[in-house]
Amino acid sequence: MGAILLYGRNMAVKDKTSCFLFPGQGAQYPGMALDLRENSRGVKNLFELASDIMGKDMGALLGDSGGEALKRTDAAQPAVTLANLAAAVYLEERGIRPAGCAGFSLGEYAALVSAGVIGPEDCFRLVKARGEAMLAAADRIREISPGREAPGMAAVIGLEPEQVLALIAEWSAAGLSGLYPANINSPRQLVVAGTAGALALAEEKFKAAGARRFVRLQVSGPFHSPLIAGAAESFAPVLEGVPFKDPVIPLYSNVSGGPVASGAEAKKFALAQITSPVRWIEEEGAVNRQEGLEAVLETGPGTVLRGLWKDSGSKIPCHAAGTEADIKLLQN
Question: Is 224 a catalytic site residue?
Fold first, then answer.
């Protein structure tokens, strides 16, 4: 299979300079990206490449109507990455290329491809190894937990991020262990990661502090926290073997919340990202400050990033770009 180019000179979405935002794990749904595959030779090639590397029929996985297989971290990560890259390829075939890119958590791997840092082949190899390492680390935590209860993540809604961070620091100083900030999503929402026991206690304490809701996420581990450090250790040798080039367009990092300066920095952040919080509020701010930017596109499944972008207060519009119908609208 030939190389898939996902970057190049700026071209307009509705005659506007755009940044691609790639969603992460949790955005998946049965049937995603299959409409793109039906109407694009480039996307078909991408499915074939992913299937070869994963050792399974990715079209069948994404077409699973029940969606149970897509809930597993080791399946969800390559599936979401495939859907993200499929949307990027489909956009490119229609003359829509990014002037910058960012990805939420797992979505950073599609952003690395769009920025020319890694190729699609290496991307799929990395997310395969990353998903397997993260699932194994979460399983180890569950095995040593009382009652073998699973660790996880939850969204704290109704408190400002600064309040949540201060409360976690206060409770940790008082002896609460196993609770960490994971995704700093918006002025309205922060996601925490923790052991089963820490999350149960935190739910009571956050509600007592004024949180409206404490929503458990459908994930298999306490991602973006020190609890998953074993995954970083397992993933590091795989990551080290992949060359990272300097970005050819602006690329933004979850770890720093700002632009990525070089391929070496991108590789360092790719490892740190596993245990570091996703600083999405800061990252959105950095994207918003990109000179000449007129639109952002949620390039992949779901609508989560559009909601978070709206919460950011940016005047730059965010458009859906994850389905054939979405992309057709962008061409009008």
Answer: yes
Q: What is the pLDDT of residue 10?
A: 34
Parts of the chain belonging to CATH 3.30.70.250? 151-216
Q: Does domain 18-139+226-331 have CATH number 3.40.366.10?
A: yes
d(CA 297, CA 96): 10
Residue 186 neighbours by CB distance under 10 Å:
20
Active site residue: 40, 51, 114, 224, which one? 224
Report the distance separating Cα 44 and Cα 40, nearest Å. Answer: 6
The per-residue pLDDT for 7 is: 37
Comparing CA positions, the residue from 84, 85, 285, 265 lying closest to residue 184 is 285
Catalytic one among 18, 51, 105, 114?
Answer: 105
Q: What is the CATH number of domain 151-216?
A: 3.30.70.250
Average pLDDT, the chain: 92
Which stretches in the chain have pLDDT values below 70? 1-15, 65, 147
Chain Cα centroid distance, residue 180: 18
